[in-house]
Write a structure and sequence with these properties.
The protein is built from 5 helices and no strands. The chain is mainly α. Helix 3 packs antiparallel against helix 4.
Length: 149
């Protein structure tokens, strides 16, 4: 009847025997790949996620398109995770830019109201003071050059 597991935790270690030499040859070839070089556990988990849904479908007569579990990336996808972090950071930059733009527009409107009816007010409203101060222009150029290097 077999041994009973003392611990019903899913993280319990279980051992298998592989007696098929051809399977060992395939495992050895896969183990040579960089992502599996020193991680036999990842290799076995990826193999199970690839083949287990097919076995389940064959045993229970379910087509693969029906409710078979989707393979999951074990250990996380470094490139995908990095991409998601970059997207989140870009969204944060866009949000901050929109907030800054809103504040600057509000300050512009207040200043325009203060100068209403004066010569400076007319110039201000027409955009004659649109040039950035030299120190800001220089800072922008320096930072853009740093990005290119």
């Amino acid at each position: 009847m077999g041994r009973k597991l003392k611990n019903s935790d899913r993280g319990t270690a279980k051992f298998i025997r592989i007696r098929n030499e051809k399977m060992w040859e395939v495992i050895d070839r896969l183990s040579a790949l960089d992502k599996y070089k020193s991680n036999f556990n990842k290799l076995v988990n990826d193999a199970l996620m690839y083949g287990l849904p097919k076995l389940y479908a064959a045993e229970f007569g379910i087509s693969e398109q029906e409710e078979t579990p989707k393979p999951e990336q074990s250990g996380g996808d470094i490139v995908g995770d990095s991409f998601l972090k970059i997207v989140r950071l870009l969204r944060e930059v866009i949000i901050n830019e929109n907030i800054n733009k809103s504040i600057v527009c509000s300050l512009f409107q207040v200043k325009e109201l203060e100068l209403e009816g004066t010569a400076e007010g007319k110039q201000f409203g027409k955009g004659y003071f649109q040039e950035a101060p030299d120190f800001l222009s220089d800072y922008e150029i320096r930072e853009l050059r740093k990005l290119r290097d």
